[in-house]
Design a protein that fits this description.
The chain is mainly α. The chain has 2 domains: about 190 residues, MFS general substrate transporter like domains (Growth Hormone, Chain: A), CATH 1.20.1250; about 210 residues, MFS general substrate transporter like domains (Growth Hormone, Chain: A), CATH 1.20.1250.20. About 80% of the residues lie in helices and about 0% in strands. Helix 8 crosses helix 9. The relative contact order is 0.16.
Length: about 450
């Protein structure tokens, strides 16, 4: 991808602010929700239900949610999703203030927050290329800033804030997150309007969802981009499942030291997201993606062999850097080459594959640690990551990516959010009325 001297449009600043505020709220709830559950029960199964409830929407509704986003106005979808999450948390805060909180209620809140996150994240992913006119260089810069802010807010600022707010009362973190979603929804309303949703042929939602999924599996570049987080989640969840035990038993790290290890990974993630665009320009996006994937595998291998906490912290920082850069380069490339009318479905299909792989990784890590040694899941994860790097290297090579960008260039057509242009109609010639998230403008 080439350097682009043009500035990001003013609308991006508002989108960045909205997502930054929302990420801060996510970080608050990431710490507060399990702690709230812990005040209600000590049953590990009940606690697991609350945690798992937040991931279920992607498993149950992922591709269908993407199909709906492709039918709806993306800006309106983001606004409604955040407004609904604000209302949900306000109700939960009222229940907490009245002493009506329960584990089933927290699980329901986690699930509905996950539904809102599915629609907001998918719509935001699809809206960004509209705002930036699918310019690859601008997309990399924008995703770098978005990823950096998300890491800073949800990884650094949010969790300690959530713990501190919970000390003031059960309702306080819930109310704080509600305010963050409300502010985000208000900011989203000020964004430039995107193109009207493309009239779709009279097809069922399921058929349209299947068309989006098949588009990913037929395109080698998109399939390579989807395989990396899917296989990566198996590996990283295997590591995460035993990381605390590994740190305690093998590295002699206590609770505070374990927190520092996680902080090292987050610092690496910030650095990786900051240098991602530079790597893409110097190496080419395909080579950069291969290098960052290889770095992740080698870093996990170094973690498995780490003799002390300092070496483990360095390995986690390098792994975080690889993940941070990958999570800028890969989405930017996907947003630049996918047709606008398929963006929601393609993004949600890729995300769903990654989410479905996560439980497998958790089971694999626990089984290997129980049947062999606590280091074994780390070595297995490194093997998976390095194998995945080798398999996908040709699928997302520089030549293939440049060909995909050239093919996508005519579709960009210079149409931005204020100047919507025509797009192909799916599946046939018989149009149906345009659908929006709010039932019309």
């Amino acid at each position: 991808m080439t350097t682009d001297a043009r500035k990001l449009p003013p609308g991006f600043g508002r989108l960045w602010t909205a997502q930054t505020v929302s990420s801060l709220g996510d970080g608050v709830m990431h710490a507060a929700l399990p702690l709230l559950a812990l005040t209600l029960t000590r049953d590990p199964l009940a606690l697991a239900v609350v945690t798992a409830a937040g991931t279920l929407p992607w498993l149950l509704l992922g591709v269908l949610g993407g199909a709906l986003v492709d039918r709806w106005d993306r800006r309106r979808t983001m606004g409604i999703a955040d407004a609904a999450r604000a209302a949900l948390l306000a109700v939960a805060a009222a229940a907490a203030a009245l002493g009506l909180l329960s584990v089933p209620l927290l699980a329901a809140v986690a699930f509905l927050l996950g539904v809102g996150g599915l629609f907001f994240d998918t719509a935001a992913t699809a809206y960004l290329p509209e705002l930036l006119r699918r310019d690859p260089a601008l997309l990399e810069r924008a995703n770098s800033r978005l990823r950096g802010a998300q890491t800073a807010m949800s990884g650094f600022a949010g969790p300690p804030a959530g713990s501190a707010l919970l000390a003031l009362g059960r309702a306080v973190p819930l109310l704080a997150d509600a305010v963050s979603f409300l502010l985000s929804a208000l900011l989203v309303r000020t964004l430039p309007a995107g193109p009207r949703p493309v009239p779709a042929a009279r097809e069922s939602l399921l058929r349209q969802a299947r068309a989006g999924a098949s588009y990913v599996f037929r395109d080698r570049v998109l399939l390579g981009l989807a395989l990396r987080p899917a296989v990566g989640n198996v590996a990283f969840l295997a590591v995460e499942t035993v990381l605390a035990l590994f740190a305690h038993d093998r590295l002699g790290v206590g609770t505070s030291g374990f927190g520092l290890l996680l902080t090292a990974e987050a610092v690496g993630g910030l650095l990786g997201s900051a240098v991602a665009s530079f790597l893409g320009r110097r190496l080419g996006t395909g080579t950069a993606l291969t290098c960052t994937a290889g770095l992740e595998g080698l870093a996990v291998l170094g973690l498995a062999a780490a003799p002390n906490p300092y070496a483990a912290g360095l390995a986690l920082a390098l792994c975080g850097a690889g993940m941070g850069a990958t999570m800028v380069l890969a989405p930017s490339l996907r947003q630049a080459i996918v047709p606008p009318h398929l963006m929601g479905r393609v993004a949600s299909t890729s995300r769903m594959l990654a989410m479905c792989a996560a439980p497998l990784g958790a089971f694999l890590g626990g089984w290997l640690a129980a049947s062999h040694d606590v280091r074994t899941p780390l070595y297995a994860a490194a093997f998976l990551l390095l194998t995945m790097t080798a398999v996908t290297a040709s699928m997302t090579g520089n030549r293939r990516i440049e060909a995909a960008l050239r093919a996508a260039a005519p579709a960009a057509g210079g149409h931005g959010p204020e100047q919507p242009g025509p797009a192909p109609v799916e599946g046939g010639s018989e149009p149906e009325p345009t659908l929006t998230a709010g039932g019309g403008r």
